[in-house]
Amino acid sequence: MRNIGVVTVGRSDYSSCLPILKQIQQDPDLKLHLIVTGMHLSPEFGLTVEDIEADGFEIGDRVEMLLNSDTPEGVAKSIGLGVIGLAQSFAHYQPDLLLIVGDRFELLSIVSSALAFRIPIAHISGGDITEGAIDNQIRYAVTQMSHLHFVAMQQHKERLLQMGEEPWRVFVTGDPALDSIQQMKLLVREELSQSLGLELKPPVLLITYHPTTLSSMSPLEEIQIVLKALEQVEGTLIFTFPNADPEGRVIIEKIQEFVTAKPQAKFFYNLGQLRYYSLLGQADVMVGNSSSGIWEAPSFCLPVVNIGDRQRGRLQTKNVIDVGLNVESIIEAIHKGLSISFRASLDQRQNPYGNGYAALEIVDVLKTVELDLNLLQKKFKTTNHCLDKT
């Protein structure tokens, strides 16, 4: 029996992990070893480890690494604590293969520890671009330290081939988070309203704003501009928590002040996947700088006002309205997204980030790939990779 380790660090990657965890759990030839770390273990970020348990997964190990600090020093120290904690975890139990998702800073701890234990790493979501955040560098560093790559589209594969990855290591599967959209029975509007404890008076805005970690503005300046624009918007405003990024707490504080003064606004630590996807289906527009607006919202034909540079470089569909950090421009973009004509122009369900069957393909590779020195010993491919479609 092959032991598959999966590490999840927060709600941002758990949506992609969930369909894969289900496939592994159902396969009699595979054994799941689930490691939970990062924001999942933090009460400040909703203690989402409880959601994982509620989904029926046995947790193999919990690795505390997130300090109660969002300074650059605190984040760097958290990475160091993660290396120590994961080293202890791998010393106790080494999976045959380790699966990780995304571009969070916690991944640097995971790959650094796994490398020393010669554990092959399979990485999901390489080859993407987010030029406005340090996630971009993290993603490419993780690519170089991984042995298998599951990417959303051919364009992402070609970038990895340009980096010298051997073509046989790279699989175009789509993003597994989109599998759940196909599989879930979403809440109808009345059910969602009851679950949220909030009447969904139109228009309904879903807002997620993360620190832009490579910006000329401070997170405080950015969130003040965003909230000043939202003050002038009527309707129901539903905020979700930002990630545990450097200087993220100031964003949390300002949003908390905002929702206290606005009756039809509410701030959620964690919506959970069912309520979140149900809200994507019921909302009138998404506002902020979340990757979800780029690769999940298209499946719901949901207009997205994408603010600032955090997602710059990512392939976008026509549901996304890019706007700078300017109050008047944000208000104008929200009105455009709410317009009947713009929404009507999105009457299609083609999402370039996946077709809803990624988990099946990913688990098939995890199950069948040869776990030998050929997998561990990476070679730099020097031919013209952009023309290589194998």
Report the oligomer.
single chain
- The H/E string reads EHEHEHEHEHEHEHHEHEHEHEHEEHHHH
Separate helix tally: 16
CATH superfamily of the largest domain: Glycogen Phosphorylase B
| CATH fold annotation of the largest domain | Rossmann fold
Number of domains: 2
Please explain how this structure is put together.
The model has no long low-confidence stretch (mean pLDDT 94). The protein has 390 residues and is α/β, with parallel strands linked by helices. The chain is globular. It is built from 16 helices and 13 strands. Helices cover 41% and strands 16% of the residues. It has two domains: 2-176 and 356-385, 3-Layer(aba) Sandwich (Rossmann fold); 187-344, Rossmann fold. The strands form two sheets. It has a seven-stranded parallel sheet with strand order 3-2-1-4-5-6-7, sandwiched between helices. The protein has a six-stranded parallel sheet with strand order 10-9-8-11-12-13, with helices on both faces.
